[in-house]
Design goal:
Blueprint: E1 9-13, H1 16-27, E2 30-35, E3 38-43, E4 47-53, E5 73-77, H2 80-90, E6 93-96, E7 106-110, E8 116-121
Parallel strand pairs: 1-4, 5-8
Antiparallel strand pairs: 2-3, 3-4, 6-7, 7-8
């Protein structure tokens, strides 16, 4: 029996409304303001990602020097080339695009606040 129910992922960032709008453009859904420091993206399928103002936010290093795992988001896409073009136009930065001619099945980007996320072939 589960002891908890999933609620959301909260992402620290310097500009919550801007980052919420970036992910709304990637995933669809509706952005709702809770306060100047907290915005929620209600994505299709009932998922919620929240964006919390973090003064002095520093994006994580990708990949980290010590090999530790970092939080990142994965998004399945039907056409990785088309999706890549779209996220780059929205302000994403490429981090690792070597998908081994498709055999690796994902590419890594940073959102406008520097958080890593992956586009994954479906």
């Amino acid at each position: 029996m589960a002891i908890a129910t999933y609620c959301l992922v909260a992402v620290d960032c310097p500009d919550p409304p801007a980052l919420a709008e970036f992910y709304a453009a990637v995933l669809g859904g509706e952005v709702k303001r809770d306060s100047d420091d907290w915005y929620d993206l209600h994505a299709p399928g009932g998922h919620r990602i929240s964006f919390q103002r973090a003064p002095g936010h520093r994006p994580p290093d990708w990949p980290s020097a010590d090999g530790s795992q970092q939080l990142h988001l994965d998004f399945t896409v039907p056409d990785i080339e088309a999706a890549e073009s779209q996220v780059l136009a929205l302000g994403a930065t490429p981090l690792d695009l070597d998908d081994k001619d498709g055999s690796r099945g994902f590419r890594v980007y940073a959102d406008p606040a520097g958080h890593p996320f992956c586009l994954v072939t479906g």
